Amino acid sequence: MPGVRTLSEANAISSQTLSPAEALRLLEQHARAAQHELAARTDAGPDVLHYLAQNGAAATRRAVAANPAASAQSNRLLADDTEDGVRLELAQKVGRLFPSLLEAEQTRLRDLIVETLERLARDEEPRVRAMLAEEIKHHDCVPRHVVKLLASDGETAVHTPILQFSPLLDDQDLIGIVAAARASSVLSAVARRKGISAGVSDAVAASFDVEAVAALLANTDASIRVKTLDCIIARAAEVAEWHGPLVLRAELPRGAIRRLASFVAAALIDALAGRDGLDDATRSELKEKLEQRRKAEAQSDGPDPVEAARRAGTLDEAFVTEAIEACHKETAARALSVLAKIDEAVVRRILESGSAKAATALAWRAGLSMRVAFKLQTSVMRLKGSALLPARGGLDFPLSDDEMRWHLGYFGVA
């Protein structure tokens, strides 16, 4: 039978001389297997788990880090582990279980739990901080200074969930964060918050950041003053990304509707004309604007330069570079979408995120050079100073392939 040795075979194996090195190898192999099994058990006991946190192999320490039965002392020990994967598992567990962990009766243990949280919030590995932020984003029992630390983190994947969801950030916090923001992703995360006040909306709108204002307008739960809408509409003619969200806003005064109809596409004028509560004069004016716009659009339709280049086999680095240098952001975005095989809306999100690492990963995915990645940062995203990510050695990508995949993964790119 398969897997069953004959008596003669068993005798032959047992008669073989086992070297000391082989004996130690077998002993270590069985010991590691036993340790790993214990590390994952919730009934192993805190002393055993602490011993494994101190002495186990990396895989064993990861199992202890994920084990909800590990003590506060073990968790604090593992927060300083040299293995990123261990701290990543710990961040997920501590973040998820933080409210129940705080129920410890002894003040010393609660202090140790908070100290562990603080250590993970300052971890050098962005994935650890991002995991923690994702797990605690809805908690109202987390120390405010930890939330503020994560909210001010330079990594998009870290600050976004906190800024968008944390109940511990009040209007004063949010207005201050918006005023000091250097990245579009910060503004956009605040703009997508549920139930943001008119004061916070004013602060976001005052930035005139394309992605953030679009997110604010699309946020049906955001309170936006009529005066603020007027300021946005005054600049909206040149910003196509705002047209759709503006047209779909529920609270549009008659004057705002007429101003929008003077520059939005025919399909959006049609949507405006279909709104309830319009008076006859406004409806008639919109009908006239719609006919005019349809005629103008029919006359201006031309070949898509990206599609033309793709068919001609010239959709390459030179094409993207020329589009960037000519300030044709939409053409560059469409080209990157085709080359990287990523949805165009995702490409726009990356280019409006303020993340130099995400833009670099996008260029890499598209098969373009670090030179193009840097042009995206400076000419398209308008990043400056410390927000820029320069090439390594003047030519090479400064991130590993795994790091670039991770930054793309945050935007849903597999």
Keywords:
414 residues, mainly alpha, 26 helices, 0% strand, globular, disordered N terminus
Topology, pairings included?
Layout: H1 7-15, H2 20-39, H3 46-55, H4 58-66, H5 72-78, H6 84-101, H7 107-121, H8 126-136, H9 144-151, H10 156-165, H11 171-180, H12 184-191, H13 198-207, H14 210-218, H15 226-236, H16 240-248, H17 254-261, H18 266-273, H19 280-300, H20 305-312, H21 317-325, H22 329-340, H23 344-351, H24 356-365, H25 370-380, H26 401-409
Helix content: 55-70%
Determine the N-to-C terminus distance. Answer: 45 Å
What sort of overall outline do the alpha carbons produce when their principal axes are compared?
A: globular
Q: In total, how many beta strands?
A: 0
Beta-strand percentage range: under 5%
SSE arrangement, N to C: HHHHHHHHHHHHHHHHHHHHHHHHHH
Helix count from the secondary structure assignment:
26
Mean pLDDT: 90
SS-based class = mainly alpha
Q: Over all CA atoms, what is the radius of gyration? A: 28 Å
Would you kindly provide a written description of the structure presented here, covering whatever features stand out?
The protein is mainly α and 414 residues long. Among the domains are: 30-142; 305-409, no CATH class. Helix content is 67%, strand content 0%. The protein has helices at residues 7-15, 20-39, 46-55, 58-66, 72-78, 84-101, 107-121, 126-136, 144-151, 156-165, 171-180, 184-191, 198-207, 210-218, 226-236, 240-248, 254-261, 266-273, 280-300, 305-312, 317-325, 329-340, 344-351, 356-365, 370-380, 401-409. Helix 21 (317-325) packs antiparallel against helix 22. The chain is globular and about 95 Å long. The two termini are 45 Å apart. Mean pLDDT is 90; it is low at 1-15.
